[in-house]
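User: Sequence for SAM domain-containing protein below. Tokens please.
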Amino acid sequence: MSNHHQHHSKAMENQLIYNTTAGSIVPGYVNNTMTNGHVNSDDARRPKPVFFWTNGEVMKWLKRHCEEFYESYGHVFLENEITGRTLVRLTPTTLARMGVDNDEHCDEMVRTIIKLKLKSDIIELKEIERRTIQQSNNSGSLNNLHLNNMN
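Assistant: Structure tokens for SAM domain-containing protein:
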């Protein structure tokens, strides 16, 4: 891959997009598929799965969705280098161990994280359904093409 394409992909990974399914700003993009030197436009619109978020992307999400706790606990997420993979596994117990000492704050943060996981899972399910439909359409087209060529 040329330096231009690598730079283009990296630049896209760091952008924020509005995800209509999740109804929120979602950091980054899914790793873009390069086709003949061009970014596949379907892939460019898809949000980067939460599981792959960096600590910086988690911090952006925290500031937007847990704004009332960001000032008090943002440093905790930064110091513990919480990534998307870690974020979706946080529980009230782990939050308390990290320094979120207010039970109500823990519960509210966990509720917000669960909502994020649900939205992320819905997006992933829709993507799987889209790929399945696309694959079945493609295989049907190939079968028809093969049959037509035999006549």
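The longest strand covers residues 16-19.
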